[in-house]
Structure formats: C-alpha cells, structure tokens
UniProtKB/TrEMBL annotation:
Belongs to the pyrroline-5-carboxylate reductase family. The gene is proC. Pathway: Amino-acid biosynthesis; L-proline biosynthesis; L-proline from L-glutamate 5-semialdehyde: step 1/1. This is Pyrroline-5-carboxylate reductase. It is found in: Cytoplasm. Catalyzes the reduction of 1-pyrroline-5-carboxylate (PCA) to L-proline. InterPro entries: 6-PGluconate_DH-like_C_sf, NAD(P)-bd_dom_sf, P5C_Rdtase_cat_N, P5CR-like_CS, P5CR_dimer, Pyrroline-COOH_reductase. Residues 163-267 form the Pyrroline-5-carboxylate reductase dimerisation domain. It comes from Oryzomonas rubra. Pfam families: F420_oxidored, P5CR_dimer. NADP(+) binds at residues 10-15, 71-74.
Amino acid sequence: MLDGKTIGFIGGGNMAEAIIKGLLAGGFSPAAIMVAEPTPFRREFLTSTYGVELHEENLDIARRADILLLAVKPQVAASVLAGLEQVISPDKLIISIMAGISTGFIEESFNNGARVVRVMPNTPALIQAAATAICPGRKATQQDLEIAREIFSRVGTVVTLAEKQMDAVTGLSGSGPGYVFAFIEALADAGVKNGLPRDVAAQLAVQTVVGSARMAAETGEHPALLREKVTSPGGTTIAGLHTLENGRFRGLIMDAVDSASQRSKELSGK
Ligand SMILES: NC(=O)C1=CN([C@@H]2O[C@H](COP(=O)(O)OP(=O)(O)OC[C@H]3O[C@@H](n4cnc5c(N)ncnc54)[C@H](OP(=O)(O)O)[C@@H]3O)[C@@H](O)[C@H]2O)C=CC1
Ligand SMILES: O=C(O)[C@@H]1CCC=N1
C-alpha cells in the first residue's frame, strides 16, 4: 500500500530521525522521504546521514508529499498547521505523532475535511523495536489506517485503538523508554555504589533489562511468574523486592504513567 508513495516529515528532530532510520533499515527508499526542518545543522546531518531530501520550508514538501507526517512539538502545532492550510487537500493523508494533539484539532485547522491518523510511537523505532498505537480521525479511511499501520510496522509493533485511549498510551509506551532508561541508569549507579567498575555495571544493567524484556516477550509468561522464578525463599531477590515495595515502586510507576497521561491531556488542543 505504501509502494510509490512519498512521505514528507514536518520537523526533523529525534522522533522523525528514529522513524526515518527504522524505515530505511526496513527497506524503504530514501528517495521517497522528504523532511522540512528549520535548523541548518540538522538539515545537513539528516541528508548526509540518511540520503533523504531536506528543505527549510514546510510548504516545499507539503505540496509534494503524498503523506505528511507531523513531527513537531505539540507547543508549535497550531502555528505549523496554520502555515500548511493552503496546501492541504483531501487527497493528502496527514499522520500526526504529536503528543496530546487530537485528530479533531488538526481537522479543524484544515477546515476542508483532512484525512488524519494520530499515532503514538516511541524512540526504539530507531532500532525497529518501537511500540506504536494508531487511531483514525473522522475522515480517515480504512486504507489510511492501513498505510499508517504499514509505516509503523516497519519500525516495530502496532496496535489500533480508540482516540480516547491515546493519552494513556502516551503516558505508558510513548514516554516509557524514558522511565526504562532512568531505571537502567539507577541500576548501574547502584552497581557502582556496591563497588563495581562503571563500565561493567552499565553493561550488566543494560543486559539485565534486555534479557528480562526479551524473556517476557518470548515466553509470553505473566511477569509475576517470571519474577517468582528469580525469587528464592529467604534469598537475595526478595530482600531487594521488599525494599522496592517499601519505596512504593509499583505505585510510583503508576503515578508516573498517570502524570504523563495527564500532561498529554493538557497538551491537547481539544
Ligand atoms: N521523543 C519521543 O520520545 C516522542 C515524541 N513524540 C512526539 O513527536 C514530536 C517530535 O518530538 P521530538 O522529535 O522528540 O522533538 P524534537 O524537538 O527533537 O523535534 C522537533 C523538530 O521540529 C523542528 N521544528 C520546530 N519548529 C518547526 C516548524 N515550525 N516547522 C518545522 N519544523 C520545526 C525542530 O527544530 P528546532 O530544534 O530548531 O526547533 C526540531 O528539529 C512531538 O510532537 C512529540 O510529542 C511522540 C512519541 C515519542
Ligand atoms: O515527552 C514527550 O512529550 C514526548 C511524547 C512522548 C514521549 N516523548
């Protein structure tokens, strides 16, 4: 369904780069990717690293791309959308990855019935390991949803949800890599505190998270059962888990996802 279509990224920041890199690794042609980005250094970097076409002006790519992928910060959404209005027609598909920005907000900015799909990916798209959720706007067709699914399937796994669930997704998997990286850092620091060399502690911390995540994914077993297998009676793990429980570990994770989801709602244009 993507064959022969061009994708124009509005904004060439971290997330656009992660998606571009993942798409190219998945066999998508760099000739079919255009990016509009205001910072000269970033334009130079993206074109020399990925061989994609860079422009300073959003309109230069918005006119030509079949699919426009909005990858600017939600805080500049209104002004960016206003600048695109003159070139948005119903034959263009708009895919937005902006946190908190509803499909309704985008549709109203283009009062001509734009076809919009809202998407929440995450940065592991860079290594084709993203967790992505997609939802259709009012005018999006089943084919539009399939196109979005195809793009993001090339950079990881995709679920289709209702728009009312997107703030929760943003708090969980959109922001989730941030929590996991903080956990890895803390684990490595803890190793250093207990006398391990920094490089060894960092290597062990990363591999512990990679191995545990792969085990959960590949065995399909409930995390509670996997945790029990590590936890010997009277052993070390239960001592560590006791400390985590005393520190309200799970409650804190839930609070973090609540806060991020709430922030997504606040960023919403609706
Ligand atoms: N980072 C993440 O983990 C995730 C981010 N998202 C969403 O993706 C979007 C992008 O986030 P992220 O990549 O992290 O942010 P970045 O700030 O890295 O990228 C945004 C890019 O857009 C550029 N930009 C600013 N103004 C304009 C404009 N008027 N027209 C075109 N480009 C412009 C910025 O340039 P400059 O730096 O010069 O301002 C920057 O390069 C956000 O809406 C975010 O909510 C979604 C999922 C995960
Ligand atoms: O922090 C943010 O706002 C973005 C959205 C999801 C992940 N990062």
